[in-house]
Structure formats: C-alpha cells, structure tokens
C-alpha cells in the first residue's frame, strides 16, 4: 500500500517543474518579441564579464563594499565582484548587471556538471555500476538529475535575460548615448517609467531563476532518501545551495537600483 506514495510525490514535482518551464517559455517569447536593440543587449550579456586587469580605485572598492552590505551574502558578493570593480565604478545598474552575469556563469557551470554526471550514469556511489559502465544511479535519481539539468540551464538563461534588461540602463558604449540610464541619474518622466519597467523585468527573471534552483533541490529530496544521499545527489544539492547565493546577491543588487 505504500508503493503509490513516491509516484504521487514525483507527479507533484513534475507538475511544478512544468509550470516553471511554462513561465520560462512565456518569458522567453516576450523577450524574442522585443526590439532589435534589446536583442543586441541580450547577446552582449550572454557571456560572463571579463575581469579588469587594473586594481580598482578606493572609491570603486568602497562603493562595492557598501552595495554588497545590502545583500544576504556580503563577503561572497564583495569577493566575487571585486575583479569587476574598475568596470563598475560607482554605477548601481552596472554592478547589478555584472552580478547577474556572474550568477549566469555559475549556473551554466552547474548545469554542465549535472550533464557530466548523467553521462557517467548518475554517479550513485552506493549503487554498484553495471558491467562495463562508469556509474549506475537509481531511476528516480536519474530522473531528478535530468530535471535539474533542465531547470538549472533554464535558470542560467533567465539570469542572462536579467542582465540584458539591466544593460539597457547603461550608456551605449558605441554611441555614447543612453536608453534608460538617464533615469537612474534622475532623468525625465518617460525614461524613468522605462527604467522601472526594465528593473522590474530584471527582478522577475532573477526570481524565476531562484525558483528553478529550488525546483532542482526539491526534486532530489522528493526522489527519495537514497537519491538525496547519493554522491551525485549530495554534490548537486551543494552546488545548487552555492549558486543560489550568487543569484540572491544579484537580485538584492537589482532591488537597490535607484529608479
């Protein structure tokens, strides 16, 4: 009589996962319908930022420390973003954009690691590998890891979308003009409304990314104690907990943008 219970839990997990992916699909469709300039911003934000070679000025480092003090993980925030302080200077929108890029890079790395585990059979240390195979996870563990690979990859895309929105708040490097950046410094009514819209979108994407991270962690728990306590389950759970700190910090920095 106890056998149907894991099926029910797994069904609930799959339903929640599908709902999250539906939200992501709708968000992606909305982004695809944006203007050509927004597409340019998305491309620019798709890769992790390059760390500056020169040391930041005392003012830039002080600005970074003050902003990071508003996050849940200030030490991680400061250490992970200090290499970009010279680029950021004292621009809150640029700081939030770089933080979103760093979170996206961490999420991509985690997704790649989960896929690597899957290619080696799940990596369940407590399960004996099949003849000639490199690993052998239980079916519920494999299913949960596949869900994680999908949801974490989607979370990385959402973080990149957040970065793309925040890029619109920065001066255009080529033309020396701004889209909505003047509103961050006290621009007109129209640009201020646009900036609020872009910041709101950035918050939405990062919040959805954190929901995806939670879905991955919950799925491993719902797959059963054996899956959660396997070597693969422990590694992925720890990876999600770590990357969630970067996403949380990015969201806090977006919330601190004055618009």
TrEMBL record:
Residues forming the Pectinesterase inhibitor domain are: 59-253
Q: What InterPro entries has UniProt attached to this entry?
A: Invertase/methylesterase_inhib, Pectinesterase_inhib_dom, PME_Inhibitor
As one GO molecular function, the record gives: enzyme inhibitor activity
Sorted alphabetically, which keywords does the UniProt record give? Signal
> Which Pfam families does the annotation name?
PMEI (PF04043)
Q: Which residues lie in Low complexity bias regions?
A: 173-184
**Superkingdom, natural source:** Eukaryota
- What protein name applies here? Pectinesterase inhibitor domain-containing protein
In which organism is this protein found? Miscanthus lutarioriparius
Tell me the lineage of the source organism.
Eukaryota, Viridiplantae, Streptophyta, Embryophyta, Tracheophyta
């Amino acid at each position: 009589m106890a056998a149907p219970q894991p099926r029910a839990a797994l069904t609930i997990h799959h339903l929640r996962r599908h709902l999250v992916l539906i939200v992501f699909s709708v968000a992606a469709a909305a982004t695809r319908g944006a203007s050509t300039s927004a597409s340019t911003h998305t491309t620019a934000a798709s890769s992790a930022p390059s760390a500056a070679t020169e040391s930041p000025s005392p003012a830039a480092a002080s600005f970074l420390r003050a902003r990071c003090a508003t996050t849940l993980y200030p030490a991680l925030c400061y250490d992970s973003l200090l290499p970009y302080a010279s680029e950021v200077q004292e621009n809150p929108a640029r700081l939030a954009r770089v933080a979103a890029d760093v979170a996206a890079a961490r999420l991509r790395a985690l997704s790649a690691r989960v896929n690597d585990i899957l290619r080696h059979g799940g990596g369940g240390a407590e399960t004996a590998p099949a003849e000639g195979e490199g690993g052998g996870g239980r079916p519920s563990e494999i299913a949960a890891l596949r869900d994680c690979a999908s949801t974490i990859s989607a979370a990385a895309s959402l973080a990149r979308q957040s970065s793309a929105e925040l890029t619109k708040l920065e001066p255009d490097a080529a033309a020396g003009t701004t889209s909505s950046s003047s509103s961050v410094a006290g621009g007109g009514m129209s640009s201020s409304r646009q900036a609020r819209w872009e910041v709101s979108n950035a918050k939405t994407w990062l919040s959805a990314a954190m929901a995806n991270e939670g879905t991955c962690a919950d799925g491993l728990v719902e797959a059963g104690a054996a899956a959660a306590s396997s070597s693969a389950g422990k590694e992925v759970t720890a990876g999600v907990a770590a990357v969630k700190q970067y996403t949380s910090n990015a969201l806090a920095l977006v919330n601190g943008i004055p618009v």
